[in-house]
Amino acid sequence: MAQSALFKVDNKEIALPIIVGSENEKAIDVRNLRAETGCITYDDGYGNTGSCLSSVTYIDGEEGILRYRGYPIEQLAENSSFVETAYLIIHGELPTLEQRRQFSLALTENAAIHSGMEHLFEGFPSGAHPMAILSAMLNSLGCYYPHLATNDHQRDLENYAQTAALIISKVRTVAAYSYRASRGLPYIYPRRDLPYCENFLHMMFSEPYQPYVALPEVAAALNLFLLLHADHEQNCSTSTVRMVASSGASLFASTAAGVCALWGPLHGGANMAVIEMLKSIHAEGDDGSKFVEAAKSGTADKRLMGFGHRVYKNYDPRAKIIKKSFYSALSSLKIKDDPLLNIAMHLEEAALKDDYFLARKLYPNVDFYSGLIMRALGIPENMFTVMFAIGRMPGWIANWKETAVNPKGRIYRPRQVYTGPTKRDYLPLHQRK
Ligand code: CMC
C-alpha cells in the first residue's frame, strides 16, 4: 500500500504521498502542498529538500556509503580507471571492451582545441585564476560546436554521446591551457599516444624543448583522484548544472555554470583552502592545537577546512581511500617530512577526539587529503579546484542528461518567503530624508 504523510494546516488535513527510492530512502511529495494549503516549504540551504529523482549516485551519509550507478566507490577505486568510470556515470553501465575502445578513441580524437580558441586564452591577464578561465572557455567551446549546443534539448540529446566525449576530453586540454595561460607559458599540444592522465600532465608540464614524462605512480594517483571526484549526487555545483539545464540550456553552458559553483571554498575550493590553512598554521608556529581550539568558535573564517559535510555524518569514504593512496604515493615519490603533512595529521587526530567535532559529527572530507596529494604530485595550488572540475565532469554530464530527458521536467524555480517592506507609496526626491 502506498504510504502517505498527514499534514494539518489551519484545521485542514491533507495526505501527501511518500516516494520511496531504490535504497528505501523516503521523501514526502509536496508538489500539491501549495495548491491544497496555500503554504510552501521553507528549507534554508535545501538540507531537507529532494530536488529530483536520480539514478546516478547513491550516498548514505550516516553509514559512509558512496556508489556510482550501484557500484561501491571502493570497488571502482580498486579496479576501474577514471575513463571507464566516466563512461559508467555518463551512460549508466560499465562499458564492454569495444565500447571502452570507442570511448577512448573519441577522447583521443577530441583532445585538441580549435586554434581560434588559443587566441581567446591570450585575452586573459597572466595571473588570472584558472577556474575563471576554465568556466569562460567551457562556455566558449559551445560556440565552436553550434550543432552540439543548440539549447534545444531534443537536438542536444541526439548528440549526447558525442558531446559528452568531447567535453570529457577537451576539459583536460582547456584546464592545462588555462594553467599555461595563467603563467604566460606556451601551449603544449595533446599527444595521441598518451592515456588520459599522462596526456594531461604532458600538456601541463612539458616544454617545447623538453618533454615531461609522468611517473606511473603520479599518473595512477591522479587517475584515482579524478575517479573519486567523478560524481557526488546533488551537491552545489551539480544542482547548479541541473538548474541551468532546466531552462533548456546546452551541456556546454550548464557545465560552465557548474565550474563557477564549484569554485567557492565551501565546495571544490576547499582543497586549496586546506593548504592555505595548513600553511598559515605552519607560519604561526602552531602544530594545529591552537587552530582546532579556534575552529570551535564556529565562525566561517575559522572553520577547519576539509572537515565536515552536509551529507556525511561519518568518515567520507573518499577521504579514507585518498588518505591510503596518499601514503603510498609519498613513499613511491620518496617524499619525506612535509611539515604541512605533520600538521594535517595532528589536526585530524586532535579533531577526531574533540567533543565539539564529535558532537557535530565532523569528520575529514575528501578535500582534507586531496590538496596534500596534489601538492605531492607537483600540481600548482591554483589548479587544485580545476582538477576537481575535471573529475566532476562525468557527474555534471549525467545529471544534465537526466534533466534534459525528463519529458515532464519543469524549469527549476523555487519560491521564497518575502520579508521586505509591505506596500508603501513612492516618494518624490525632495521628500526623502
Ligand atoms: N569547522 C568547524 N566547525 C564546523 C565545520 C568546520 N569545518 N563544519 C561545520 N561546523 C559546525 C558549524 O559551525 C555548525 O555548528 P553549530 O551547530 O554549533 O552552529 C555545525 O558544525 C553544522 O555546520 P553547518 O554549517 O550547518 O553544516 P553544513 O552542512 O551547512 O556545511 C560544510 C557543510 C561542508 C560547508 C561545512 O562543514 C564546512 O564549511 N566545512 C569546511 C569546508 C569544506 O571542507 N568543504 C568541502 C566539503 S567536501 C567537498 C564537496 O563536496 O564540495
Outline the structure in words.
It is a single chain. The protein has 433 residues and is mainly alpha-helical. 51% of the residues lie in helices and 6% in strands. The chain has 19 helices and six strands. The protein has helices spanning 33-37, 73-79, 82-91, 97-109, 115-122, 130-144, 153-158, 160-182, 196-205, 216-228, 236-245, 251-262, 270-283, 289-295, 317-332, 339-352, 355-359, 366-377, 384-405, and strands spanning 4-9, 12-20, 26-28, 57-60, 65-68, 71-72. A hairpin with a 4-residue loop joins strand 4 (57-60) and strand 5. Helix 8 packs parallel to helix 9 (196-205), helix 12 (251-262) packs across helix 19 (384-405) and helix 15 runs parallel beside helix 18 (366-377). The longest helix has 23 residues, at 160-182. The radius of gyration is 23 Å and the shape is globular. The protein binds carboxymethyl coenzyme *A (CMC). Carboxymethyl coenzyme *A is lined by residues 45, 232, 235, 266-268, 270, 295, 298, 303-310, 360, 362, 365-367.
List its traits:
433 residues, mainly alpha, Rubrerythrin, domain 2, Citrate Synthase, domain 1, 3-stranded antiparallel beta sheet, 19 helices, 6% strand, binds carboxymethyl coenzyme *A
Number of domains: 2
Low-confidence parts lasting 5 or more residues at pLDDT below 50? none
Listing every helix as H and every strand as E from the N terminus to the C terminus, the arrangement reads EEEHEEEHHHHHHHHHHHHHHHHHH
The helicity comes to 40-55%
Task: Identify the CATH class of the largest domain.
Answer: Mainly Alpha
Please give the alpha-carbon distance between the first and last residues: 64 Å
Largest sheet data: 3 strands, antiparallel
Instruction: Please tally the β strands and state the result.
Output: 6
Strand order in the largest sheet? 1-2-3
Helix vs. strand class: mainly alpha
Mean pLDDT, rounded to whole units?
93
The CATH superfamily of the largest domain turns out to be Citrate Synthase, domain 1
Bound molecules: carboxymethyl coenzyme *A
Radius of gyration from the CA trace? Answer: 23 Å
Tally of contiguous helical segments: 19
Provide the β-strand percentage band.
5-15%
CATH architecture of the largest domain: Orthogonal Bundle
Shape, principal axes of CA atoms? globular
The fold-level CATH name of the largest domain is Citrate Synthase, domain 1
